[in-house]
Amino acid sequence: MEHMRELRKNNFCKIVTLLFVGFQVFLINAQEQSKSDFTIVSKNSKVSILIDKKDATVVSIASNILATDIEKITGKIPVVLNSNKVSGNTIIAGTIGSNKWIDKMITNGKINVSEIEQGWERYQLQIVEDPVPGVEKALIIVGSDRRGTAYGILEISKKIGVSPWEWWADVTPTKKESLSISIAKEVSKSPSVKYRGVFLNDEDWGLQRWAALNYEPETGDIGPKTYAKVFELLLRLRANTIWPAMHSSTKPFYSYPENKFVADDYAIVIGTSHAEPMLSNINTEWKHDVMGEYRYDTNATVIKNLFTKRAKETAKFESIYTTGMRGEHDSPMIVGEDDTDAQVSLLERVITDQRAILEKEIKKDPKTIPQAFVPYKEVLNYYQSGLKLPEDITLVWTDDNYGYIRQLSNPKEQLREGGAGVYYHTSYWGRPHDYLWLNSTNPVLMWEEMSKAYEFQSRDIWILNCGDIKPHEYNIELFLDMAWNIDDFKESSSVKKHTQKWVSREFTDITASTITNLLFENNRLAYIRRPEFMAWSQVEPVTKEGETELTQYHYGDEVTNRIESYQKLIDTTEEVYKEIPAHRKDAFYQLVYYPVIGASKLNQKWLYNYKNKFTAKQGRQSANRYGELSNEAFDRIVKETDYYNKTLRNGKWNHIMTMAPRFLPVFAKPAMSTIVNERKASIGLALEGYQMEVNYEIINSYADVLPVFNNYTNSTYFIDVFKKGKGAINWEAKPKADYIRLSESNGTLDDEHLEKRIWVSIDWSKVPKGENKKEAPLGHDFQLIPPSYKVNSAIDFKADDETITIGVSAYNPKFDDLEHYKGFVEDKGYVSIYAENYTRKKDGKEANWELIEGMGYTNKVITALPRTAKPLVDLEEIKMNSPVLEYDFHTFNFGEASVNLQAVPTHAPYAGIGVRCAVSIDDALPVLVDFETKGRSDEWKRNVLKNASVQSVKQIVDKAGKHTLKIWMVDPGVMIDQVLIDLGGWKKSYAFPKETVKK
User: Fold this and answer.
1) Single pTM value for the model
2) Which residues of 819-858 are buried (b: 16+ CB within 10 A; e: fewer)?
3) Which of 569, 622, 751, 769 has its CA 20 to 30 A from that of 648?
């Protein structure tokens, strides 16, 4: 009986205990789930920040950064303490196991950290009442490790309105007298990518000069003071890794002993590039006079001594050791035998020896030491040729230097213990041309490629080559935000949302939409041709400027259209600049104004130069004016760069911005053609469609008839009226038919107004209808269309006693089958289609066609997803199971046609997947189209300079009338941008003509 009473008593105690614990958990959860206001600064008070002196140094650094941020907003700086002498509202920040107050709250059940405990770089934020004696309310920041704590602390800086770019782009915080935040319990996930960071490469032209001559003159280099600021930025952006600057202009990172300690204080992991094995900088650390030749086959002992020295020096610090070996100055490794098998064998020996050094000096199993292998350039060939790589080493794949990832892990490689990563460029020095000045990598392209990498399990190391940091600010943040939480970027539209959120944070909500659209249009134009590529020159060897591929006399004049597109950007940028609050104008200048104006003026410099040369050949007086405009664009770049360096923030950024990296021809002031004409003023005419001007002294001049106007596309064409000679001259244009419309019909040309572009269009309601037919006329030459379909007239241009007659032909038939037709139609012998504007799409068994917004020539491309879908190569299986895009189009001619497809020039992710699609017209068997390129071929060079791969296949259009173009998926991930069906009428142009859609 006594036993039963004791048992009941014990059970009762257990029940009470469980009820009490349950009630306690309920209270904690209720507290965690409700938002609470927390006052940081009020009129009469300010918080203290309580940390434990035993915690990591980075916790103290981050706490002091937060305190300074609070001061910048309110003028009051919180005290950072590590003692019990606290009261009132307090921020308590610490790492689990390294902060006695945090640990006590965990033990007492005040906070529950089970979600983040043992996690990688995780943090938890919450408000707790009476957390420690003397404190009424505390904002608790707890990290799973030292970086998790630092990220949590700096997350508060973001929440109170301090940008990560507060120092690096002078995003001055908005002043407030009081400061509070409303916060619920917030638990971060582990980062999507384990090691995330940047590579300070090609630093010669900005960062090194700025540090040496301005910010850190006592070192005369990028030293510990500069790196401390870089590391602070990385912490604010939740990054954890850096590949330090490595050019010969900069002393090696480890030549300054303090650098490694600063990195450790900021909890930043040091790695090195593909050309810097074992954290060594071969460019400047290898001394030929005392060390001999940098060849492992003949001088391995000396090379191993260098590796050993660095391993000893870095044994106690967080590092990622690059294994393998390349030659000096980013060149191939020198070996005695020109034999791939021998090279592979030697590289395997190098890696084996490196791992032995790591094991000996760090005194750990090499499998537990972070290591990377970067299959870049010839090393990729060695890897593909069978190189045996230890499974625990991380494979770091690379892009082709222009934003297109060369290769990713195949299914077997995706299971490797060491995983995989990506080294990606938004700045590059090398063939076929550098882009070191502005940030011209399309952010949506970067999203697409890095999302693909993540999908193929490259999740361990992401490194962005961002050159000098400035002006790559936005792409750096986007890259690192994706690496932090890829789930926020599931769709292409996520990038634009991210941009708008970023713009709102840095400037104002009022102008956010305008600025976002401005940036996306700047990205679109740069995608069509990067600013640095506008001279049509190349490097290594450096070539002079070449002839532009942009046409000035077809399809509305591509050169003028691009000038005008950039002028709209300039006008919008200057207008928005006026609306930016005064304390954010310097930030706007750095993040938007200078990059947009710089890109615009570099474009206009060359575009006006091309117009100068073109119009000079026609004897136009306006050629001189175009030369002046080109020079003015050059001078504007000089002016803005000078302002950036010398005036902005009182010279804070002096030497950071160089407008002519490597002094390449594209950055120079171009040579101009000059027109000297002493004759009396006369007019000249130049028509769309002709390279030469109208020569009215020649009877039946072939350049005196405009291209045929097509009712179904509502064509418009231009006529340039220009002045030759000295003085002024009046002109007048008189149409000979009432259906011919002119944008202007008269004017005066003088020294102020040297030329005028007249737009000619047709009032189709007044044009006589052609015969009612079911079929179209034969023949590819629209000048030879049968009379029953074409109406001819003319425009007389008169000046003084001269009359120049320009022919006008209007194609205005009436076809029954086009009465209610909606779709694409032939115009002047071609059909032009934007890939996103399909008539129908049919899903496949495993994949679907999906839109990607924000990239391509039209800001939209279409691709087959998921990228892991099985490729289909059998033509019959393609017709049955592959997703297909269908485009209805109508032709007025028939015969053999070239179907030209423009795709984004991506690479196959691995062997077994290609870069192919298939096309057919009507019910023909699909024909394969392959966009893949090999190595650094001439085709690849053309593709990356143009951001486009154009392939052509022949198809038969068996009759005039309606047809359907079909594009089938063969390999997933191929991105189609535009399509041109050429029946023999397409003229030379850089981009495909605008869409020929029935109006």
Assistant:
1) 0.94
2) eeeebbbbbbbbbbbbbbbbeeeeebebbbbeebbbbbbb
3) 569
